[in-house]
């Protein structure tokens, strides 16, 4: 009991000292510098009062495991050559950004890029990825300044913080067409009729045309464009009896051979699937924007799938006939007028993501190297001040473009959209044909 008191006082003193001597708010001194005396061992002339206790200017205070009772100016006065002992190396400055402090390993976003606070060469520094983002302020301002271009650009929040290289995967989704696809039989209607200057499937077949779909962050345009075109055509060909909304999820989840789901697909593989196995409707199997386990048997029908047909004599899934290629502008127009929207594949560059209205033509603004292929649904055509266009449904939701649609120059193979256009006929039921 007799020893307890002095020991605890001593401990307090040591703790008090070590705290007192490391802060920046110590009384400024000088201490050792007052006499410039430094000693080998503890001696009165080398001790000074600080904050009600003592600090020392001797080698004893400077022992390896913590220099906890040296006077604050011990090092510059008594040991100016020494480097600080290990464990006392001055901490490197942290990374800073926007008034905030970040430690080694912390990250922050800069647009679509990520910056990491990295420690190298004894310093913390920001290291940022430098990928082009989908949205580019220069594209927006250049496009909107160039009134001859004919279309306008917008700052879409749905693309914020997304990289262009990812947008080309997850907002598109069509694999480059194989050469043999270009040998697909083309239909030649060669109808010499008066084509209307404007045609809009939505007006011609009110309520039959599928609303614009949002494919989400999933490269499923190959599934969405086909599902919507077939839906429109089922309604049109059946004169409304089979006004069905077919689910792109059927293709996304069940057509997995040779396909990459949300990372893209081959449109011809999708047609083949739709013709052999068929599709089910959106109510039965809603679109999820991701690949899920296909719940259907390959050889099932709507009843065994647990889906509800709209007409009594339908049991089979919704299937299509073989596709045919449309090559000439007027044949495309004829096919749309008679049978409904068609599918087309176009090339997409960075500027297209910004489109908010007008007649699109690929511009010289933005990245010209990175591109992807996009399957879309052409629902009609028109002319504005003599400028001919196709009217096209995109699959990026109704907030994008002109209520989800865009117009693109017609008759000039703009963005390659006229290099691959296809039509399919649907297997409507007998009863709906009457
Ligand atoms: C687009 O929006 C972002 C986020 O609000 C903003 O930082 C950027 O300056 C905008 N760009 C243009 C060209 O308006
Ligand atoms: C249309 O343009 C694409 C590329 O943009 C090109 O590959 C294709 O050959 C063109 N087609 C025609 C018919 O000119």
UniProtKB/TrEMBL annotation:
Signal peptide start-end: 1-20
Secreted recorded as keyword: no
Entry's Gene Ontology BP terms: proteolysis
GO molecular function term, any single one: cysteine-type peptidase activity
InterPro entries referenced in this protein's UniProt entry, alphabetically: Papain-like_cys_pep_sf, Pept_asp_AS, Pept_his_AS, Peptidase_C1A, Peptidase_C1A_C, Somatomedin_B_dom
Pfam family, one: Peptidase_C1
Span of domain SMB: 34-83
Keyword Lipid metabolism belongs to the record: no
Keywords noted in UniProt: Disulfide bond, Signal
PANTHER family (UniProt xref): CYSTEINE PROTEASE FAMILY C1-RELATED
Family, similarity comment: Belongs to the peptidase C1 family.
Protein name: SMB domain-containing protein
Organism: Arctia plantaginis
């Amino acid at each position: 009991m007799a020893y307890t008191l002095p020991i605890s006082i001593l401990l307090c003193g040591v703790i008090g000292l070590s705290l007192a001597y490391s802060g920046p708010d110590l009384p400024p001194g000088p201490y050792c510098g007052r006499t410039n005396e430094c000693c080998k061992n503890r001696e009165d002339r080398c001790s000074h009062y600080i904050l009600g206790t003592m600090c020392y200017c001797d080698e004893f205070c400077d022992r390896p495991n913590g220099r906890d009772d040296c006077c604050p100016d011990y090092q510059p006065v008594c040991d100016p050559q020494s480097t600080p002992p290990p464990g006392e190396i001055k901490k490197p400055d942290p990374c800073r950004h926007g008034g905030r402090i970040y430690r080694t390993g912390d990250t922050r976003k800069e647009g679509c890029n990520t910056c990491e606070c990295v420690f190298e060469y004894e310093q913390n520094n920001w290291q940022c990825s430098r990928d082009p983002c989908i949205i580019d302020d220069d594209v927006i301002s250049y496009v909107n300044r160039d009134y001859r271009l004919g279309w306008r650009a917008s700052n879409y929040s749905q693309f914020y913080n997304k990289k262009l290289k990812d947008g080309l995967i997850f907002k598109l989704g069509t694999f480059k067409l194989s050469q043999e696809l270009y040998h697909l039989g083309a239909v030649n209607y060669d109808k010499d009729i008066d084509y209307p200057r404007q045609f809009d499937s939505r007006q011609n077949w009110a309520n039959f045309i599928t609303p614009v779909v949002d494919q989400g962050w999933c490269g499923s345009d190959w599934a969405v464009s086909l599902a919507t075109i077939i839906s429109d055509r089922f309604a049109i060909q059946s004169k409304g009896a089979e006004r069905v909304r077919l689910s792109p999820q059927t293709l996304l989840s069940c057509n997995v051979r040779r396909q990459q789901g949300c990372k893209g697909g081959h449109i011809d593989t999708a047609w083949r699937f739709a013709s052999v196995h068929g599709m089910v409707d959106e109510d039965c199997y809603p679109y999820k924007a991701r690949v899920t386990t296909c719940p259907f048997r390959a050889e099932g029908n709507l009843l065994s799938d647990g889906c509800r047909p709209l007409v009594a004599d339908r049991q089979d899934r919704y299937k299509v006939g073989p596709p045919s290629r449309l090559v000439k502008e007027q044949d495309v127009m004829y096919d749309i007028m008679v049978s409904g929207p068609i599918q087309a594949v176009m090339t997409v560059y960075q500027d297209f993501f910004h489109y908010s209205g007008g007649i699109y033509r690929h511009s010289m603004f933005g990245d010209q190297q990175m591109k992807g292929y996009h399957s879309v649904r052409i629902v009609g055509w028109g002319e504005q001040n003599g400028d001919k266009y196709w009217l096209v449904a995109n699959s990026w939701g109704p907030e994008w473009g002109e209520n989800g649609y865009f117009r693109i120059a017609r008759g000039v193979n703009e963005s390659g959209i006229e290099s691959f256009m296809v039509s399919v006929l649907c297997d409507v039921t007998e009863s709906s044909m009457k």
